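Researcher: Please predict.
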Amino acid sequence: MRRTLFCCFVTFLVMIRGAQAITISAGPTFTPATNAPLAGLLQLTTDVDSRVSVQVSDGTNAWEKDFYDFSTTHAETLLGFRPNRTNHIVVTCYDLQHNASPTQEVTFITAPLPSDFPTKTVLTNQPSLMEPGYSMFVILRSGATTGAYIMFLDPSGQVVWYRPWTANDFDPHQMANGDIFMQQQNPSNNFLEMNMLGNTVRTWTAPAAYPVNSHEGNMTDHGTILYLSDVTGMATNFPNSTASNAPLVTARIDDNPIVEISATNSALLNTWSPLAFMDPQRISWLTYQFSTPYGVDNEHANCVIEDTNDDSLIVSMRDQNAVCKFSRDTGKLIWILGPPAGWGTNWQTNLLTAVGTPFNWNYGQHAPELTPQHTLLLYNDNNDAATPPTPIEQDVTNQSSAIEYSIDEATMEVSEAWNSNWQTNQDRLYTGALGKAERLPLTTNTLVTYGTVSYINGVHPSSHNANASMVRIKEYTHEAVPQVVFDLAFFDYTNVSPTYTGYTCYRSYRVPDLYTHPAMPVADLTIGLQDSSPSLTFSANSTHVYLVQSSTNLTDWATCGTAVQQGTPGNFNYTDNDDGQSTSRFYRVVTN
């Protein structure tokens, strides 16, 4: 559906552009952001309504950014600078008649990256085959409580934005308005919106009864926040160890309810308890890996997503080696994706049956997501690769990967549609925790976060500390034999200290741009005559396609054609060569 941006009703009046009159009356000034050292605020004032265009050169890179908000007072956030560069920012303003002001220049010198900034190495980089955009994530020093950074990297792996951060909160999401959404566990127990200057814009406080779990927090498209929490539940006849003859006890269980609150006022809207639909006596080799204040860590939920096709929710429970789908309205279990061993009689009809070869079950999985083809993509840590009492797969021989499953709910069958391990001649990476797989929209490539690599081809990343971990972020093509088109390692290969611990990363995302590109009203639409035909000129964001529509009565509109860019980016023109015999005609510009 097209959305009308702006209606500009004009007759065949030729508008003559006057002599250049626009001037910058104050500024420009550029103020570096305190919390985001590679960003800043450009401010200036003009004597008439205008829009701002900037051209930046740092001696190596050059780029242009156009803004389309017409005003006399401007405060524009500038992004995309690289560290340790002298940036020349040339500013030009354009009035409503497209007259340009004299250019003015300001300089911004960026500092080198901090001395404790994570060490990275680009191992593979094929930009022509990669999904366009920027990689966003938090890198943490493994085992440390300081030294974490939120960062954006360009396609070549260069840092273009960063902010020092806390090691406890590590899953940033880019919001529709370009800000960053984060969940913060106790003691903050809230969610926050942060702008690209690194400043908090807004917070939402979670209900005290449902504290924020560090694993998940999502802003939905219907005005709510979905997240995971921790509460204490009880289970009877629960094995008190993974031994085959373990005594059965009444146990406190760390239940991870899915919680939904209002994004308007933080009011509690819904809760769903996994203990209400899962087998409360089933355990895995992971059950007793961690202890929590809430009880036995037998769920360890780490992701929740919505399936809008049937108004259901999908939750990943790492310590059950299970991804479960249930009804939003009733809480009724629909299916279980995971190895079938160990489930009680009442859950047998909910288990998906594996069909086809090759096929790999999910163990210790993270971050399931639905693809546009309605397959389910997830990151398979593959912890233990067995269910008690079957002996475990040792980490040294194990392998993690991204797996895409095709699920047929009518037959309750599941097949393996794609696996990053189908790529041949690559390192065998194993992670015992963390990770994400993301299907990328334009190329259908898959971005895979190996969040805490403890073995590479059966060998620890560091020969000096067996506990040191590496981060690998890889982009694969979606082919039967995938190609690796991007491979980024966070690890200091030169560090031989026995205390060096390396890095971890919970999830990474590919975002289209550092800037958002909302559809804005066209404010400077002008009309003239070109060879007796009406010629329309306007400026607008070049990421959109603009259609010109005409009418003779302001009620019935017909599309004349598509405006084309002429000259510099963002300057559009359309000439109506078929204007008929009407004595007057009205025009408007629309975009999708």
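Model: Confidence is low (pLDDT under 50) at residues 1-18.
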